[in-house]
Amino acid sequence: MNNYFDLKLVELGRWIEAFFAHYPTLKLVVHLLLCTLPLALSFMGAFAFTTWLERKGLARIQNRPGPNRVGLFGLLQPIADGIKMLLKEDIVPERSDKLFHFLAPIMLMIPAMIGVGFLPLGDGLHALPLDSAIIFFFAISSLNTIAVFMAGWSSRNKYSLLGGMRAVAQMISYEIPLVLSAVAVIMMAGSLNAQEVVASQQISSWVGSGNILQEFFGRILGWNVFKPWGFAGFIFFFIAALAEANRSPFDLPEADSEIIAGHLTEYSGFKYAILFMGEYISAFAIAGIGVTLFLGGWNGPVFAGLPWFVLKLFSLFAVMIWIRGTLPRLRVDQLMGYAWKFLFPLAILNIFLAGFYHFLERQWGTAIAMLAGWLFGFGALQLAAIALSRLNQSPTIRSKRVYQLVE
Q: Which of 107, 120, 312, 325 could form a disulfide with 61 if both were Cys (CB 3.0 to 4.6 A apart)?
């Protein structure tokens, strides 16, 4: 059975709820706890493991050992860091707005945890099974902008305020290409239901053919990332997701070389830990929706279910770590210009490419649509990217530089 693991988890939940069948109110409370508590604990555990993984990965890129003192291979380092944050003094600036300074970490954490509830982790495994889960996900994730600016403004520190203003400009700008890249997927799937979007990413005729080889490739080649419009959309989505999650090279709101730590400057102790955790879980959520929209969700070549979703999620996060260790930080003008002058028009063009592909698929079949989509549709995106690159090039770069020696 393909979804054996997921079905067993669902059955376990129903079995536990059956003990409270005669107590409707208590049964509802147990149902809510079963939907939310394992999810929250799992992502908090993933946060702890990923901080270790990121520090070890960056250390290897930079030719140093990384955490290696606490536990085997430094695996207990996140626990030591958590204890340190709990014991550190909570320093609040005297002139800060005490209420909003306290609420900002909570405001960042709550949307992040709600966002992961919309993710279809497996067949029937989702905490918030809504028919319009994808649109609700983007609506909830946009609240992070308010929380980050609240942290910067309430600190009464010019560096924190500047970091908060940068975050607002950056996150609002990159939300547009992020959502536009998802529009093509929603349009092709014909649904806002995350489970239906995942189910649409397989070649049904191949999966039900009975041929092992056809079933294998039918579960992979149906992923949106292997289609011309989906491949381009995934690239746009991933770049915008890095900016939304304040990940390098788009981590200007926390640029330590320019503004100390941005909106985090005046936070210490457990408040800092909650802000840090909220940003990580937001990154998990945005990576998870990317897996759902473009990488087939919980679909896999051999079987389907939760393990495939987890594997894809951590693989995508590993790419984020790799990018952080290799690419330099952008300037503010480069950051904003890239969103509005490059990603935005290309994301709109990609929606037309998806419509072109859909028309060809209905008229001529998948093979012709794939061929024409890659040759003409993706080629049109390439030409548009080259034209936008030349159009947005500064005059000083266009002209040949002349170097003069000073005597």
A: 325
State the total domains in the chain: 1
Q: Which domain holds residue 383?
A: 88-389
Give the integer Cα–Cα distance in Å for 42 and 376.
44
Please enumerate in sequence order all residues whose Cβ is within 8 A of that of 268, keeping only pairs 6 or more positions apart, or say none.
88, 89, 90, 91
Query: In this structure, are residues 222 and 203 in contact, taking their beta carbons and an 8 Å threshold?
Result: yes
Residues 115 and 282 sit within 8 Å (Cβ to Cβ): yes
Q: Which candidate, 295, 174, 189, places its Cα nearest to that of 244?
A: 174
State how far the Cα of 227 lies from the Cα of 373, in Å rounded to an integer.
8
Helix/strand/coil percent split, the chain, to 5: 75, 0, 25
User: What is d(CA 151, CA 140) in angstroms, rounded to the nearest whole number?
Assistant: 18
Distance CA 210, CA 132 (A): 33
Regions of the chain with pLDDT less than 70 = 1-2, 4, 255-257, 394-401, 403, 405-407
Beta-carbon contacts of 181 under 8 Å, excluding residues fewer than 6 positions away, are 233, 234, 236, 237, 240, 347, 350
Residue 106: inside a domain: yes
Closest listed residue to residue 300, CA positions, set 197, 221, 235: 221
Q: Is residue 308 part of a domain?
A: yes
Tokens encoding 343: 């990603």
Q: Find out whether the peptide bond into 253 is cis, omega within 30 degrees of 0.
A: no
Residue 89 contacts by C-beta under 8 Å, 6 or more apart in sequence? 268, 269
DSSP result, 262-281: GGGTT--HHHHHHHHHHHHH
Q: Are 190 and 286 spatial neighbours (Cβ–Cβ below 8 Å)?
A: no
- pTM of the entire predicted model: 0.88
Does residue 126 sit within a domain?
yes
Q: Considering the domain boundaries, does residue 368 fall inside one?
A: yes
Longest Cα–Cα distance in the chain: 93
